[in-house]
Amino acid sequence: MKPGFLPLFSIVAIVFLGGCASGVRIDTTYTSENQDSRAQFLVLHYTVGNFESSLATLTKPSNRAVSSHYLVRDDPVVTYRLVDENRRAWHAGPSFWAGYSNLNAGSIGIEIVNAGPVVGADGVTRYTPFSQAQINEVLALCKEIVARHQIRPDRIIGHSDIAPGRKQDPGPLFPWKRLADEGLIAWPDGAMVAAKRPLYEFQMPDAKWFQDKLSDHGYNTSRSGQWDALTRDSLISFQMKYRPAKYDGQPDAEIAALLDAVNTPQGMVLAKPDLHSKPYTARW
Are 169 and 46 in the same domain? Predict the structure, then answer.
């Protein structure tokens, strides 16, 4: 070898190593206080299937690929993480809530194994109940997610809220009031609802009033002034959550009073404000 010369493989190695060493060196000395979690919403679903079929649907490729961050099994009750919380799962589809659309990008999805609506031998469709153990598991999971991401109570919602008519899950048997009692979501003040109900028994508001109240609460409701399909579907979703004993999409005094309360300052009560480390301020 001539003095002052390197073999070709040595030159290549030096260039390669030099290239590896030239990556951006990140300095993490400073951290901005102006930030929050990418996860702004928590969306609850049921799977309409057993565990095996639900797992396959949520994990295997298909023409209509779907996924969720978590799957809560029914028997035995087990929580499976299917998608990391820092990544986007495909669980919401076309969606809207309180001015936000395409909620996949900013939400965490929980799928609960449940058969959903089932037609019985008598021809009547009935929703499948959730077991107490499964609901306890979902509540614990929700609390952990809320603690990690500081998700606001008014952003813990059902698939039926963000896609009324197209979706009905988690259905009328999902115990939203239990979530309220545990401090996860706010609930209409009972005294206010009782005080407002006689006003609407005396005179029922028109369709436009209901549309405005549903929209103010968060639904992507029509403003047509007519009782169109989207308005009734939105009302059904609202009824399933706050008055699940009757969810027919028909206006009545009780539902009007509930809609009035949820859109009134101090009309929503949060049982355990300390569950959310940041003070909760209602959207209005």
Answer: yes
Give the β-pairing of 107-112 and 70-72: parallel
**What residues form DSSP beta bridges with 158?**
44
The predicted-structure confidence for 136-153, as pLDDT tens digits, reads as follows 999 999 999 999 999 999
Render 152-202 in DSSP notation, one character per residue: -GGGEEEHHHHSBTTB-TT-TTS-HHHHHHTTSS-EE-HHHHHHHHHHHHH
Distance CA 69, CA 138 (A): 13
Tell me, yes or no, whether 212 and 250 share the same domain. yes
111 is catalytic: yes
Same domain, 51 and 151: yes
129: preceding bond cis by omega (within 30 degrees): no
Please, what is the end-to-end C-alpha distance for the chain in angstroms?
81
Over residues 170-199, mean pLDDT: 98
Calpha distance 128→125 (Å, rounded): 10
What domain range is 103 assigned to?
Answer: 41-186
pLDDT at 284 over 50: no
Q: Which residue has the tokens 């260039």?
A: 15
In DSSP terms, which residues pair with 108 in a beta bridge?
42
In this structure, of 2-6, 62-66, 87-91, 139-143, the range with the lowest mean pLDDT score is: 2-6
Query: Considering the entire predicted model, what is its pTM?
Result: 0.89
Q: SS3 of 146, please?
A: helix
Given the residues 33, 52, 85, 111, the one annotated as active site: 111
Statement to judge: residues 212 and 126 lie in one domain: no
